[in-house]
Amino acid sequence: MSITRTLDPPPAAEQSRSRPVKPRRLTWRRALRRDWQLYSLAVLPVAFFVLFRYLPMLGNVIAFRRYVPGGSLFGEKWVGLRYFRMFIQDPAFWHIFTNTLILGGVTLVFTFPLPIVLALLLNEVRAAKLKRFVQSVSYLPHFLSIVVVAGLITQLLSVNGAVNQGLRALGHAPIPFLQQPGWFRTIYVSSEAWQGVGWGTILYLAALTTIDHQLYEQARIDGAGRWRQTWHVTLPGIRPTMVTLLILNIGTFMAVGFEKILLIYNPLTYPTADVIPTYLYRVGVMSGSFSYGAAIGLFESVIGLILVVAANRISRRAVGTGLW
Amino acid sequence: MTSRGYRAFQVFNALVLTGVVVVTLYPFATIVAQSFSSEHAITAGHVNVVPRGFNLTTYKKVMSDSAFWTNYRNTVVYTVVATAISMVLTTCYAYVLSKRQLKGRRFLIGIALFTMFFNGGLIPNYVLVTDLGLRNSIWAIVLPNAVSVFNLLVMKAFFESMPDELEEAAAVDGLNTYGILARIVLPLSKAVLATMVLFYAVSFWNSWFSAFLYMDRSNLFPVTVYLRNLIAGATGGADQGTASDTALQIGANIQAVTIVLTVVPILTVYPFIQRYFVSGVMLGAVKG
Amino acid sequence: MNQLSRRGFLSTSAGVAGLALAGCGGGGSGASSKVTSANRTGAMAKYGVGDQFKATVPLSFPIMLLSNANYPYKADWLFWSELTKRTNVTLQPTVIPGSDYNQKRSVMVSAGNAPTLIPKTYHPDEEAYIAGGAILPVSDYLDLMPNFQDKVAKWNLQGDLDQLRESDGKFYLLPGLHQDVWKDYSLAIRTDILQQLGLAVPQTWDDLTTVLRAMKKAYPDRYPFSDRWSTPPQPGANNLLALVGEAHNVWAGWSYQHAQWDASAGKFVYTGATDSYKQVIQYLNTLVSEKLLDPESFTQSDDQARQKFANGQSFVISANAQELVNHYRKDIAKISGATVVKIPVPTGPIGAAKFGSRLENGMMIANKAKDGKDFVALMQFVDWLWYSDDGLMFAKWGVQGTTYNGSVEDGTFKLAPDVTWAGVNPSGSKNLQVDYGFFNGVFAYGGSTKLLNSQFPPEELTFQNVMDGRKALPLPPPAPLNSDDREQATLWQTSLKDYVDQQTLKFILGQRPLSQWDAYVSELKAHNSEQYISLVNQAYQDFKKNHG
């Protein structure tokens, strides 16, 4: 009985809170009176957002106006949906848009679970020193600069590099990995996973410490082995973190690593490697088409926002918690 | 608990973790080795974990430049101040957002979340900072990036998962909101606080773009800008003609040296933070 | 002098002046400048060629200074103090690290915050700022710059300058002026291998094929030629493509431009579809299919290419003087008996000719400067420092008697014994660039061939002499697009370039047979190559009509 109880998502408090309040409608007056201290804590952060985020956001209006560098910040004249039409009608744009979606999506699918898995594996290590050592080493790739990582990739995958040497030893002909569009996604996702998995475990490890050890005790008393304990105690314990991260990552999945792609792609791999930011970079290299970039940026932002809202709704229905 | 299946799993786990260590440590060790290796060994590709042609030329050149130390000190100052301010703002706001009964909570979350997707772009931000008179001051680095929505929402999730009974009990004991936050919630949130401090600190430590954009005087740059420029000068290097051997040596491993110089402080500080979330510092059974 | 930093958010800028793009005539060096006596503070009343500019009152001008990490900015350089002594002008630098100079320049100009003088600008980067009215149409003010005009006339640079003109007939960049086309890039070959195989230094590209074949026969397990300089967004092996292209009189590699001037037809055609371009591809395809040229040349990093050369895996690589001396020679030092030389660029169907502009990176001037009271003095100052013989000499080599002795005119030039630069006088205690601030890329560029040659060691001089002997082919006529067309053209250009780059590589690497060339040309048409070219031709006609 105690196991099933512990499976429920934490806030038993939610049920006890929402019922008593319902009869009396909470007006702003009462809310302020009751919670003014909380609101006071929110003043400075909100001021930050308004000043440093919302005020410059007005600049996004250049997606609808003709902007020229050195001219007015808000563009010269209203052109409406002209730039939006420009990229919607550009067949090249849809291709790179698809590339961005695929690359971002595949990256998310592979790099999201890996830190969780690693955190759980680390959790099973008894020796504290070993655990700390492995964890400290695993995040080192996060600190390598992108240029260095790109250099490592090109070196590893060159025709005389380590991978191809291995292939030759197995009797296989060498593959020019970086010249073939079919390999690009694998290469990119692998490098993202390698760079991010160690750093990503930190948050989950922190989440693991918040799980009440008594729950493990109770589970053990009830006869659960290590696997069942993980399934019924550990995973639910880190669920809030997982859900938060998942929704946030879904919202931002289109933000692929521009610099890294720029360093390892080439015209032969454009069909799969070219994504929105690299395309804009090439367009921008020839002229300062700011308005065009702003229009595309807005388009991506709207998509991201819709995805987050949808993901949140699904999450609330599926597991009861979400981002809000 | 020590079933045969579990023992097999432990072996498997050991193998996997060893693999992780090798795959992540090996390239890094090679980079470190390169930072100590001779130019010829590097360009011929002979360096692998062990330095070849050991020399300290690049280190000496970088560390004997007073500008390097000035900028390094800047980095430390910027990081400490920025992390402190960010932590205060983020923690307060995350706590507020975690209170489900707060009226307008969704709106407040939305204010933050919306900014994750929409921002004004480079030029409006630049003009704003300039108009506020923040250029060439530490505030240009600290303020515009004070709150990371990602960190904010993760912290909120942590606060939400804390049992309400604790706070209720404290309220009964007569603590107001500020007291609850300071005396009850924060001490029990060491794991997430340590994590956020780490995230913010590392992000500010590695950042160079804000400083580059808003500082016009080289004595205000953080060390990342200094090193980045060194790399550009060494690897771009036009109008140089014949370069000295020293310059060539520097050109070969300045990137590696840069990485070592920026990562080593983090590595030394990290164990102090790590103990908050690895060895399982317990929440403590404050319940009942 | 941050006058514009007080702009409030909701105020619109008054910088719409630059929108006067509809071919108003009068573009050219003879235009009368619109200066009045209100702009003449500090200016010299009589200032001409050979005069030392000295402001009548002390003046100061803000300048954007790219700080090269090899000689980082120092406030106490002799350069600054001597400059003030001679010209009565103090420069106020905004120091920007060289690593991201372009980005910061772009932000500052776009935000209206840029200093008056903005050097280190490469054409066509300045085009982005024209429509916003942020930069000065310098061609309107050339009458204030006697040295500039003198050099243009003396060295016949009209055609080169026309390349910089926009659709309104004006140009907005003050370029560095060279007397002759300066060629630095070529190929480096292991001369000991040549000797070993009894081969002569190849003179033509066909000679090179023969040489490579012999090398391959002697060393069948490796690619004799493994190239570098393959950073996107160009196709790859960009130097090699550019050199071979030049030999066939077509733009290719990093010199690629979409519009090729067909003199006999009197119009522009699309470069990627021309027969000459096909010949370039064919040549390289032969090299690749005979396994003479490493296919990875087109995608590998420079480090990898260098590594192969350093390990004796390859014998030929693209080079410039600096790479040769600083890297290649030292890289192969461990191979006994290895020697390497930069050969004069091999020639092709067009023979011993060369192609290129004699202009190089230059300076933009903020538009608001023209309203300043010291505007005329500013132009005279710029003219003296960057375009007069004395100014060029000063910026490059410094002060006679202190940093150098002799003169470049009669060949007696020599760096002072205690001053070292680029390997000359290695025991010198002071570095010309680091300690004195001379030979700084922001100030010292361009000039007469004699001045240019004074910086070369004897080996490079031999190369330069051969290249100087080649005839310089005429440049195409100007065909600048106006800003409305440019927006659409940019998108077409990007998709065309991507396609050309991709197919170029596919043809060369044999992934696509050359028999499909015609199909490729039709595909280019599907990417709007014809529309693009007709835009260019229209621009050419318009320019010819409006500005002769």
CATH architecture of chain A: Orthogonal Bundle
The name of the CATH superfamily of chain A reads MetI-like
Number of strands of chain A: 0
Strand/helix succession of chain B: HHHHHHHHHHHHHH
Describe the model.
The complex is a heterotrimer of chains A (324), B (288) and C (548). Chain A is 72% helix and 0% strand. Chain A is mainly alpha-helical. Chain A has a single domain, classed as MetI-like (MetI-like fold, Orthogonal Bundle). In chain A, helix 6 (113-123) crosses helix 10 and helix 12 packs antiparallel against helix 16. Chain A is flat, with a radius of gyration of 25 Å. The two termini of chain A are 30 Å apart. Chain B folds into two domains: 3-43; 65-287, Orthogonal Bundle (MetI-like fold), CATH 1.10.3720.10. Chain C has 548 residues and is α/β, with parallel strands linked by helices. Chain C folds into three domains: 36-179 and 359-393, 3-Layer(aba) Sandwich (D-Maltodextrin-Binding Protein, domain 2), CATH 3.40.190.10; 186-354, D-Maltodextrin-Binding Protein, domain 2 (3-Layer(aba) Sandwich), CATH 3.40.190.10; 483-547. Chain C is 36% helix and 12% strand. Chain C has 18 helices and 16 strands. In chain C, the strands form seven sheets. In chain C, strands 3-11-4 form a three-stranded antiparallel sheet. In chain C, strand 12 and strand 13 form a beta hairpin. Chain C is globular and about 70 Å long. Chains A and B meet through helix 2, helix 3, helix 6, helix 7 and helix 8 of A and helix 1, helix 4, helix 5, helix 6 and helix 8 of B.
